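Handout, tutorial session.
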Amino acid sequence: MYVHASRYHEVVEGVAGIAHSIRMGSPLLAETQMGPFTNCAHRDRVLQFVEAGKSEGARLVTGGGSPDHSGAYIEPTILTDLTSRMTPVAEEIFGPVLVAAPFEADEEALQLANDTMFGLGASIWSNDTREIRMKRRGIKAGSVWVNVRNALDMALPFGGWKNSGQGFDLGEKAVLGHTRVKAVVQHFT
């Protein structure tokens, strides 16, 4: 999460409050907002990313542990004070871990967002149409959402750029990925 420096601390504090209030538990219960991982190996892998970030100098704002639930749970976690080369920024974590950093100018935000070998998805949150237009064109990711996150539609292709994924799911692009083109020319005399 890259936030303009003028609002960085306010936004990080607000998101941390939301993360801290998320109710974890069985996905079979209506009050549950976040369930466990499917297995402990995945949980442990995500926790290793968090620990690597802390050992590299990242600051833990909230979460970072596995609560006392029977199952593969991880508390929603926020890390700050990171650089693009630190493990939690440089890798795809696939867990409830948010890394946050400030930026001063739009061009810097794009540079930070693209300074990765991955590019699955990104979201832009703004009411400034010029900023939105510039950032959505400049972000190198397979999906870019504006003022929304993870809004999927069966008609839209979903997949990553760079080292994120192999091809696309959903939409015409996915169907075409399972076809083979053949040109046949026949002449009748």
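The second record follows below. Compare its token runs with those of the first.
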Amino acid sequence: MHDKARKNNAGRKPIDAIVMFKMLVLQQLYNISDEELEYQVNDRLSFMRFLGLGLAEPVPDATTVWLFRQQLKQQGLIEELFEQLI
């Protein structure tokens, strides 16, 4: 999914797919919007710890979360991934 080779080092570095999926898990568990998820990850140390993010690391924004979810849906993976958790 995110294994594309980067053309150059300009711009923001890609976010780990595991971190992004863990964000979707938090979102489902707490039934929160993309915007609220971004806020809560920035606000709660427990969320940051679950995601494996340090205090100085950037948190994916709401748009990034939405785009990641859309990619999973287009590839038909989102249901399959969540079924693996059950």
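Points raised in discussion: The first helix runs from residue 17 to 30.
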